[in-house]
Structure formats: structure tokens, C-alpha cells
Amino acid sequence: MTKSTPVEKRPYLGKDDRKKALLNCAAELVEEAGWGVLNMSALADRAGVSRQLVYQHFPNLESLLGATAWVVFTDTMEGTAQAIAGHPDDLKQAIRAAELVSLDMPVGRGDALWQLIAGSGLNSPELETIRLGIRDVILKLWVPAVRKEKNLDKAAATSLVWMVILSFWGIRQLIRDGLVSREQGIAQFDSLLDRLM
Fold first, then answer.
1. Angle at the Cα of 78 from the Cα atoms of 99 and 185, rounded to 5 degrees
2. How far apart are the first and last CA of the chain?
3. In whole angstroms, what is the distance from residue 99 CA to residue 169 CA?
4. Which are the contacts of 103, defined by CB distance < 8 A and separation ≥ 6?
5. Which of 43, 39, 103, 112 is CA-nearest to residue 71?
6. Phi, psi for 180 (deg, rounded to 5)
7. What whole-number distance in Å separates Cα of residue 119 and Cα of residue 133?
8. Residue 7 confidence class, pLDDT cut points 50, 70, 90
9. The pLDDT of residue 116 is above 90
10. Handedness of CA 135, 133, 129, 98 (dihedral sign)
């Protein structure tokens, strides 16, 4: 007679704590392998729970993607808002402070956020909707400050903000890929800011 190995039970978590744990697992999946891997089955496997439990917290893939995108984006958004608030009369310093928030995030989180900002490799209408929402949040953070500093109309300020955002993320990718050092990337981005601002 052989003894079977007892199955380790997952710890009991309350509803809010379980949802938070699932979202952390979902963010880890995306940070490791991109948005294309995230679905109910992959999350259940990663979290060691049933798909039924995942569906209890996220009724569909769209809600899971949206909640995960928010988890990936929240720290950066909060850091950016603090950078703007910390430098209300110096837009270049606010941008430089926000730059460090994004440069200091873990590589996988930065890659996941870059995919959302740039729309690269998303391949789903749900993620496209989320991408547009994140773009709107970013613009709402920066456009008022740029309009005030540069005395631009809303359309011109929006264009300038988005060009600066994409320029920053382009430099971040070069730093990430080792094509330029962090110091070189920061210096080049600062030079661009000096010309634009």
C-alpha cells in the first residue's frame, strides 16, 4: 500500500484579499510574458486556484485585463501626479521627476506599460480600449501643466505632451536594451526637454 502525498491547501483569503492576490498574479504573468498570455486559465494556473474562482472575481476577460492594466499603471500614475504636484511652477523639473519614476520601475512592469502606451502586441479590442483610457489619464495629468507653461491651446498641448511621452519611452527602451546607458539616456532626454520646453 502506497501513501499518497497530501495536497497542500491554499490559504483562505477574504474576497478583497483574494482578488488582490489574483491581480498580483495576473500582473506577474503580463510582466513576464506580455499581455497575450493573460486569460482566465493562465491566471488560475499561476495562482493555484480554479477557473471558477477566477470567474467569481472577474466575470470576463475584459474585466480581468482592465483590472490588471490598472495595477500595472497605478504606481506610475501616482508617481507622475506627485511629480507634477511637487513642481507646480517648473514643468521641466516635474517631467524629470516623473522620468525617474518610470525608469526605476521593474523591467517587466515597464515593458507591460510600454505595450499599453504604444499599443504594441496587444491584438485585442479590450486592450485597445484600455490603451486609449490610459492615454487619456496620462494626457489629463500633463496637458493642463503644459498649457499653463507654454500658453498653448489644448490641441497643441496634447500633441506636445504625447510627443514627449513617446520620446521618453523610446529612450527608456534604449536604456532597457543596453543601447545607451541610463546616464546617456537621461542626458539625451533632458536635452530634448530643453529644446521643447
1. 10
2. 78
3. 9
4. 172, 175, 182, 185, 186
5. 112
6. -135, 155
7. 12
8. very low
9. no
10. positive
